[in-house]
Amino acid sequence: MISTLRLLLITLFMLSFNSHASDLAKEKRWADQVVDGIIDGDAVWLNDGKNEFLGIYTEAAEDKGRGVIIMHGTGIHPDWQQVVQPLRVGLTDYNWNTLSIQMPILPNEAEYIEYAPLYVEVTPRIKAAIKYLKDNGSSNIVLIGHSQGATMAAYALATSDIDVNGFVAIGMGSYADDPRMIPVNSIEKIKLPVLDLYGNEDLKEVLETTQARAAAAKKAGNMQYKQVEITGNHFFDDQEDSLVETVANWLK
């Protein structure tokens, strides 16, 4: 009886532990689907110190020693056709090497707030991506995140020593009450050049917090923070060229 109870408690503990970590089985399923379909770029496997995760590296038209790390939104993958793929391919025409990485994810039924404990996994993945870019000749490195990928990147920059030269946040808003998931809290601590980019038909969580994000940057004394609105919804459907051009112009 005691041994049965002990086994049950151990099982419940393991389930609880696993619910606070990226769903590696789902990451593998995404990778199995994505890798064979890559047209531009090459699949690479990075290691965050605990696990391997997928990245897609695409070389610049002309290598000038600079690269971007692209971080997707909630629950998807590094070759997602909206926002992610247009940027990872399009920026190579502007002579930026791109590395789009798999972010920590949860099962499809997970609530947004359940992602908060996964934020601790973000910095090791970013650092692994930075190492890969540096090993391949990129010394000028910028982070680009979309939606929750932007919120994760902002949290990492605010709480860790990350060696990058700038940050592009696309469609970044407040979608949950956990302090880790509120971009304003992170922006107040970021001193790097920041492009805060959003669409004029973006989600209300993005549009309603534009002033708060700008105020947070002012509080941080960040004179290199820039907020830009362009035509588009949260995923910039049918506005991909404008999205890429806007990001590329700021990167210059």
Can you characterise this structure?
It is a single chain. The chain is built from nine helices and eight strands. The protein has 252 residues and is an alpha/beta fold. It has a single domain (2-251), classed as Rossmann fold (3-Layer(aba) Sandwich). The protein has an eight-stranded mixed β-sheet, sandwiched between helices. β3 (66-71), α3 (84-90) and β4 form a beta-alpha-beta unit. The longest helix has 17 residues, at 2-18. The chain starts with a helix and ends with a helix.
What's the gyration radius in Å?
Answer: 18 Å
- Uncertain segments are 1-19
Q: How far from one another are the termini?
A: 68 Å
Largest sheet, described in full? 8 strands, mixed
Number of separate helices: 9
Number of domains: 1
Broad CATH class: Alpha Beta
Write down the oligomeric state: single chain
Strand order of the largest sheet: 1-2-4-3-5-6-7-8
Strand fraction equals: 15-25%
User: Do you know the CATH topology?
Assistant: Rossmann fold
Following the backbone from N to C, one meets helices and strands in this order, namely HHEEEHEHEHEHEHHEH
Shape: globular
Give the helix/strand class.
alpha/beta
The averaged pLDDT comes out at 92
| Helical content (DSSP H or I, runs of 4+) | 25-40%
For this entry, give a set of tags.
single chain; 252 residues; alpha/beta; Rossmann fold; eight-stranded mixed beta sheet; 9 helices; 37% helix; globular; disordered N terminus
